[in-house]
Amino acid sequence: MVLAAEKINNGFPWYRTFDSLNHAVVIIDRKARIVVFNRLAERIFNCSSFEAIGRPVKEIIPKTDLPKVIETGQPQFGRKFKHKDKVYVCNRMPILEEGSVIGAICMAQDITEMESIAEELQAIKELKGTLETILDLAYEGMVVVNREGRITMLNQAFATLLGVTPEETIGKPIDQVVPNLRLPVVLETGKGEIGDIERIGDRDAVTMEVPIVKDGQVVGAVAKIMFRDVEELNALAQRVNALCAELDYYKGEVERYRDSKYSLDKIIGNSGAIRKLKETVKKVAQTNSTVLIMGETGTGKELFAHALHRESSRRHGPFIKVNCAAIPENLLESELFGYREGAFTGARKGGQIGKFELADGGTIFLDEIGDMPLSLQAKLLRVLQDKEIERLGDAKPRKVNVRIIAATHQDLKERIGRGEFREDLFYRLNVVSLNIPPLRERKEDLRLLVNHFVEKYNCEFGMRVTGISSDAYRLLLNYHWPGNVRELENVIERCFNVVEGSTILPEHLPMYLQQFGRSRRLVKKKCTLKSLLDQAEEGAIREALEATKGNKIQAAGLLGISRASLYQKIRKYGLDRLY
Ligand SMILES: Nc1ncnc2c1ncn2[C@@H]1O[C@H](COP(=O)(O)OP(=O)(O)OP(=O)(O)O)[C@@H](O)[C@H]1O
């Protein structure tokens, strides 16, 4: 820095003092020409003092107001200005000599950092204000204490419970304000306590108390009221329990009804009738037509209904089965169509969705349709025509996108004749019909079915039965199977309970089957009682020997006769060559 009037004051370079200040200093004379330009000024305005001194200040700092100070003689304090991304604050003052202005001085300081700190502080202040408002408006009561257990914050909700104002509690020890809270213990142990029931004001509240930990040290603690009243919690728990129970009920219902278990390949049978039915199912599955499945009990009607659903484009939708015969008549309507809340005494709150709505986008299987009451038949007819349902007690029609498959073991024409089934409904349902013949009319399927069930029960029982003896099979073949495939399956399952070796023998079959075989033989031959008894005895001995693989001791045991007696009878019937 160079000074215009050099080295006065005993040669001490006093002007150097300006360089040691952490302010930028610019001094001008009466004509606004620069006389002092210190080192910081040089750096800020990127101009050396050598260049600046003697030049009009406006040439070096065009925006400065310093000449105005000379004009007015008035100082300016705390003026902010920006220069190259930095913020400065400056004071400008006139320099006086004997009352007249002989120049002016400007001292500027870089406050960029302070500015950003101030901005941050402002943001924090605003955030604090917002948080305070949130805490005060919060429904839950909240209180914060410092390390000493003195209250630093208590929100309005808590204050209301205590009947005080938040302000009057600040700074007070927590145990004086809320004696029952366990905050002092939490401060001591550093462990949170959640779900305690504590008396606050005039009620038992459920609280949560947790320490505030900073750098591993407990610096305070906070308590929050989770439920103002235990009763509130009880009510909530009851509500949650009720909702869970309801959810379980619906989950169970959906699981029970939604799943269509059987595909076409699960239907066993190679008879012409079964093959043709499978072909029809594949074709019909591509349409939305209503299907009526007819057949005796146990012929596999439900199996075909499942397979039809699985083959159709609705396979990802629900498959809902309704057994019209199993549901009491007075409940069937609400079961099928649902009901509105308050539709009848005992109706669930919120009403209930019916099976038709549950099947939306999928298939509804109306099993035992022949048992549907006439009043409901009329309603079902409307659903078939309009594709919409009405919940019980609710006149608002609801569109449903459902494919209907109905099944019956009854002769519907006969029922129509007796006035028990609507003819118009029969024709609406019978758009496509599948007639499943009884097992006795397709005995060629018997072998496959037997093998299938033997395999199934081997898996279920963990056994290794390889098959059925020819005698036993003959008995099955001769039987008329009134219960069809279901009955056959039951017979095989029963055999698994009694079979000992790897083959199912006649005596493993139920007695009625064994007797059925014999009585048919006997009736055909028109024998005398004596010969009938002999035949029965011979048959029993043969079966016992077959079952025991010729072991006479075991066979005698099975028949409940002595070994000697068995030998005698073997000889009598000429069986000694065979066994
Ligand atoms: N072709 C088949 N292949 C394999 N299992 C079959 C067959 N037909 C029937 N079943 C079995 O027989 C039992 C009865 O079948 P399903 O319930 O489908 O008969 P249904 O005709 O609907 O009887 P119902 O009229 O009594 O309701 C089931 O266990 C089923 O798995």
Compact description:
The protein is α/β, with parallel strands linked by helices. It contains 25 helices and 21 strands. Keywords: ATP-binding, DNA-binding, Nucleotide-binding, Transcription, Transcription regulation.
Overview of this protein structure:
- The protein is an alpha/beta fold and 579 residues long.
- The chain has five domains: 15-114, PAS domain (Beta-Lactamase, 2-Layer Sandwich), CATH 3.30.450; 138-228, PAS domain (Beta-Lactamase), CATH 3.30.450; 264-429, 3-Layer(aba) Sandwich (Rossmann fold), CATH 3.40.50; 440-524, Helicase, Ruva Protein, domain 3; 529-573, Orthogonal Bundle (Arc Repressor Mutant, subunit A), CATH 1.10.10.
- 45% of the residues lie in helices and 21% in strands.
- It is built from 25 helices and 21 strands.
- Strands 2-1-5-4-3 form a five-stranded antiparallel β-sheet, sandwiched between helices.
- A hairpin with a 6-residue loop joins strand 16 and strand 17.
- The radius of gyration is 51 Å and the shape is elongated.
- Bound molecules: adenosine-5'-triphosphate.
- Residues 267-269, 295, 297-303, 367, 409, 485-486, 489 line the site of adenosine-5'-triphosphate.
